[in-house]
Amino acid sequence: MTFNEIIANLESFDLSQLVALNQESARVYNEKNAKSLKDFTKGDKVSFEDDAGKVFHGTVIRRGRKSVKVELEETGYHWRVSPSHLRLAA
């Protein structure tokens, strides 16, 4: 079943199927997030985009359980960013 088919058929799922779908998607998300979290270490130069598409550059200052704290080069502000949104800077 494709993603679009699942979305189109959500109304036909009973409550137990929706709960199982939610749990499985959360498990897969957490696995992928944990793997990508390990890709970054303190001191790494990274970049990421905000929701508006603006690119920010900074340095990893802390790696948490679910996010990476980045100190921005331009302002010195700290942002907590999901590792799935980060790219190592060249």
Structure report:
The protein folds into two domains: 3-37, no CATH class; 45-88, SH3 type barrels. 32% of the residues lie in helices and 28% in strands. It has helices spanning 3-8, 15-37; strands at 45-49, 55-63, 68-72, 78-81, 87-88. A hairpin with a 4-residue loop joins strand 2 (55-63) and strand 3. The longest helix is centred in the N-terminal third of the chain and has 23 residues, at 15-37. The radius of gyration is 17 Å and the shape is elongated. The N and C termini lie far apart (39 Å). 9% of the residues are buried. The model has no long low-confidence stretch (mean pLDDT 91).
- Just give the CATH class of the largest domain: Mainly Beta
Distance between the termini: 39 Å
Computed over alpha carbons, the radius of gyration is: 17 Å
Beta-strand share of residues:
25-35%
What layout of secondary structure does this protein have?
Blueprint: H1 3-8, H2 15-37, E1 45-49, E2 55-63, E3 68-72, E4 78-81, E5 87-88
Summarize the structure.
The chain is an alpha+beta fold. It has 2 helices and 5 strands; from the N terminus they run ααβββββ.
Provide keyphrases for this structure.
alpha+beta; 90 residues; 28% strand; single chain
